[in-house]
Amino acid sequence: MPSQDAHARGSATVKLLTVNVHKGFTLFNRRFILHELRSALRDAQPDIVFLQEVIGSHHRHARRLAAWPATSQYEFLADSLWSDFAYGRNAVYPEGDHGNAVLSRWPIIEHHNYDVSVGTHESRGILHSQVRHPDVADDMHVVCVHLGLREAHRRAQLNQLCTLVNKIDNNAPVLVGGDFNDWRRRASDMLTDCSMRDVFRSTLGREPRTFPARCPLLALDRIYVRNVISARPVALASRVWRHLSDHAPLAAEVRL
Asked: Residue 221's domain spans which residues?
């Protein structure tokens, strides 16, 4: 439930979208589709975008692909619609790096990337950005998440996420999106310890299936909120998105 302070500060509506962009390639890396992905994001018109598996740099792709952007993928996707962006580098390799990113229509005044990798098998991160909305008294805390494939790793990473959220001021809105890899649907119960609620589960009764995008079987992607007045799922054009990543995106509208 939102606090009394949340109601007192007035109302602003924010549209969120989260998507694992699979490094700008279709399933099995058959085709580079970053330009199409940017068009789909523009058409969806979210205010804040959570990106996972977005490339910061890749020297081999830059030499090989004529359509490869001159900037990082997250800067290319931000274009002129999202004035601010933050990047958290999770994986580094000889050709370049990739990680999480947040695109925002409003200023990102501070951001920090937390390495939540367990061992050396997978590089995972939690990117925490502080966004200043002109009509909201408290800064929004926007958290982009990409968790591990192993359940024991996810459990440890969810505990770290809860620790981070519990340190945020109780009056501030918290918006969390990303690829949780939570095919067993256990994350929502764990995140009640830090008063987070899944927008889709609380509205529709269960988390939506998002993977694989062409015929979703597993509920891997999530949007969680805390200290907001209301939140509801937003439908996206599935025919447009199903070939743009191996994950279907999720969108939600939040009132602060």
From this structure: 4-255
pLDDT for 168-221, tens place per residue?
A: 999 999 999 999 999 999 999 999 999 999 999 999 999 999 999 989 999 999
Asked if residues 241 and 40 have their Cβ atoms less than 8 Å apart, the reply is yes
Q: What are phi and psi of 168, to 5 degrees?
A: -80, 140
CA dihedral 128, 133, 137, 139 (to 10 degrees): 10
- CATH of residue 155's domain is 3.60.10.10
Alpha helices in 46-98 (DSSP H): 59-64, 73-78
| pTM greater than 0.85 (yes/no) | yes
First to last CA, the chain: 12
For strand 140-146 and strand 174-179, is the pairing parallel, antiparallel, or unpaired?
Answer: parallel
Q: What's the domain count of the chain?
A: 1
Q: Write out residues in the chain with pLDDT < 50, as ranges.
A: 1-9
